[in-house]
Amino acid sequence: xxxxFCFLFLLSVFLFPTFSQINLISxxxxxxxxxxxxxxxxAENEEYLYSLDGTDPExxxxxxxxxxLLDTTGDIKLRIKKLGNSKEEKIVEFxxxxxxxxxxxxxxxxxxxxxxxxxxxxxxxxLSIPSSLQFSLGLPPDSFIDGQDISLSNxxxxxxxxxxxxxxxxxxxxxxxxINTYPKSAGIFSRRDIPFEVNDWETLNFVNQxxxxxxxxxMWSLPTEPVRIDRSISHIVYWxxxxxxxxxxxxxxxxxxxxxxNTQIQENGAVTYSINGDNSYLLGILNKNSVDYQELFREIxxxxxxxxxxxxxxxxxxxxxxxxxGKITEEYKINKRPPSRPIIYSSSGDFYSRNKVHIEIESxxxxxxxxxxxxPFFIQNLSEDYENxxxxxxxxxxxxxxxxxxxxxxxxxxxxxxxxVYYKVCAYSQDEKNKGQISEYGVIIDQYNYYFDSNSTxxxxxxxxxxxxxxxxxxxxxxxxxxxxxxxxxxxxxxPAGNSEILSSxxxxxxxxxxxxFEKDSNLIVKNSSLFINDCVIQVxxxxxxxxxxxxSILDLNDCQISTYFQKNGTFIDAFNSxxxxxxxxxxxxxxxxANVISGISSKINIKDSTIGCSGDTAxxxxxxxxxxxxxxxxxKVSASxxxxxxxxxxxxxxxxxxxxxELKSVKKSQAIYKDYESKINLEENNVxxx
Length: 691
Hints:
Helix content: under 10%
Shape: rod-shaped
Number of helices: 4
Largest sheet: 13 strands, parallel
Structural class: mainly beta
């Protein structure tokens, strides 16, 4: 096997850079999900030994006689020693943790090389690398490309061994194997038997002394020394038996002029060699002994896969009418390896940013860098969670690509006052022949959506999903520094003692067991703004006075569960010149003396589909003055010595289809709804019991 393998590399294929005197193609350092091949680029007469546990190969090792599967897993310390006068040694430490891609879309592809470490490929066929994977050809540094169909030209003739690294970005697993390439079909094997040899085109060596010879119109002779001729013109070489007899056959061979090699670069990057003009010529590739050519071709091609680059020197043997004439040496270079993806650096460590984002893009130094930026995409639904892969961003259009002045460019992505915005940034590199893969970056610059998590351990709490706030003080600062903010609450949000003033509009919504707890002597004051609370638990213990004050503001509660306990006197909401909306809420309010759910002056009070209970010595659910009401489809209950569902002064609006219940200890029953003569309240279909 060693001699065959040497032949593969004596085809002037210098794909791999020299790491040391030991040119190791496989394996390399890393953690691999399949068994690895041992492949060494071997020159003539070189001998190697190797071990797999780090021991001295000369003492406890194996002889390397060609590519071999290292049929082992776990942590491996490969030690290779080159024998000879100047011994060289190489150590590679790597790990094998096999993964067959079970239940993955690429499982069948992985099975091709999982247990063998190699794939055999024939020129002209297609090797399909699944698009869910990335691949890189050759030795490091890797340049990964999206999985795709790769192939070689039909008439590519070189037999090569190409390393291939496969990467599943989602699981961060990597596989590495070698691709053995072979020509599609054999060439011509015929040879013509003549009594002389052509050496170096211009020298004829007459090897059969049983014949006499003449060249063109010269004299017959028996040459004992090589004869030089001018190969810029055609010649005829004659011969006949040295034993002259009348009628002896005279044979001849026409030596055509030395041809020119025609080199063409194909559209796919392959290099094709052919002979200009003379159809008698055929081409061959020099074999391992450098003295003979095997298969002959009308034309030959040198090709490689997309993603690979290699160069070398090719010795092409020339045959005329199946007789060797000499060789022509051609230099070739095929570069189908695209530049590396540009690296996009961002000042934001998260998909969400609060401030403008500084972008830096860097590409390979010897490549042109192109980049494009989308227009700001405004996000309408601020309550959704987004990721860079969210469907909403797929159709965001980029501007035209710009060519950077160098391999580095930087710029800023700015927030917009109109709301949260998404930006997409893309970049690619391009060399003389190849366009690289596109790098993509996306970010939301959002000065409106925030996250709170009572169990947050983030050292730098900035209110993003990965670095959420962990105190109400942090939330309040963000609220009052913007026009509008939305908070996703997870866990318990504690309102500290004292007055907490909300001066800008905000939304609190449930992101997981959201509970808003008012600590002792705490209250919220909403001024000239809006407070929306959705799907949260609100609880109060041991407090007196007003819980939430709304001054020229909007207070909107939806799907909330509210449990309040006041030591003596308490009001849940006190509204002045404001709008209070309560929908589908469950409220239980209790006080030892006076209990009131909503007190309002010059406000709009809208309550729908809610269940509200209020208990105390004196209990009133609604105490309104100069208010407009829309109260419908609710269940109200007061438990008190004295109590009412509502006290309405100078109010107008509707109060209909409600269940009004009273559990009153007073002998003198009161009205469920009291309205003065100034009030214009439409009372319809209310079911009243206990009053």
